[in-house]
TrEMBL record:
<dbReference type="Pfam" id="PF03803">
    <property type="entry name" value="Scramblase"/>
</dbReference>
<dbReference type="GO" id="GO:0017128">
    <property type="term" value="F:phospholipid scramblase activity"/>
</dbReference>
<protein>
    <recommendedName>
        <fullName>Scramblase</fullName>
    </recommendedName>
</protein>
<dbReference type="InterPro" id="IPR005552">
    <property type="entry name" value="Scramblase"/>
</dbReference>
<dbReference type="InterPro" id="IPR025659">
    <property type="entry name" value="Tubby-like_C"/>
</dbReference>
Length: 196
């Protein structure tokens, strides 16, 4: 991947919109400079959107987000398969960079490269909204934290904010997967608006 996400501190934010809006993301560096924008590729039907509004209704539908530069040049696709078991990160040409494979929902995700070789893992602490990204030896390489914005914002809008801190140097493709952890965990766990 390019050096676009080379900052050790990143923010991933969703604009504050209603539950029937298309999922969108902004990726900013630590100084607030916009690096990339993401948008859901397929617009969900009203019925699909309504399922995600009520607590206890997990976001089980397949979802895909395209990440692009602010100028519109495609960078990555984050493709969540049906359910909560597999999310792939791909280049715009479809080449797989890596994948999140669910071991225990909300608690443990195996990170895999394009050849399904283990890159590391994401350890989740859902009640505290923390995710630790580790390399194959178990060393922490990144920390992702979902910021709490209050009950009304959480339940009634799509607004979510994540802080991503990366312990450089982190080799590719693990670094790209660490950056994409915020979007992947949001699609897997937080789009349902459950109180977690």
């Amino acid at each position: 991947m390019s050096d676009l996400f080379n900052s050790p501190v990143l923010r991933v934010e969703q604009p504050r919109k209603g539950p029937f809006s298309k999922t969108q993301y902004k990726v900013l560096d630590g100084d607030g400079t916009l690096l990339a924008v993401g948008a859901e590729i397929k617009v969900r039907s009203r019925g699909e959107s309504l399922k995600a509004v009520f607590p206890g209704k997990s976001e089980m539908d397949a979802r895909a987000v395209e990440l692009a530069t602010p100028e519109g040049e495609p960078l990555l696709h984050v493709d969540k398969a049906m359910g909560r078991m597999f999310t792939a990160v791909r280049r715009p040409d479809g080449e797989v960079i890596g994948a999140f494979r669910t071991e225990r929902v909300g608690r443990l995700y195996s990170l895999r490269d394009a050849d399904d070789k283990r890159l590391g893992e994401v350890v989740g602490d859902v009640p505290r909204r923390n995710f630790t990204v580790k390399d194959p030896e178990g060393n922490q390489v990144a920390h992702v934290q979902k910021k709490w914005a209050g009950v009304a914002t959480h339940l009634l809008t799509t607004a979510d904010r994540y802080a991503v801190e990366i312990s450089d140097p982190v080799p590719e493709p693990l670094r790209t997967m660490a950056v994409m952890t915020a979007i992947a965990m949001d699609l897997l766990l937080h789009e349902s608006k459950d109180i977690t």
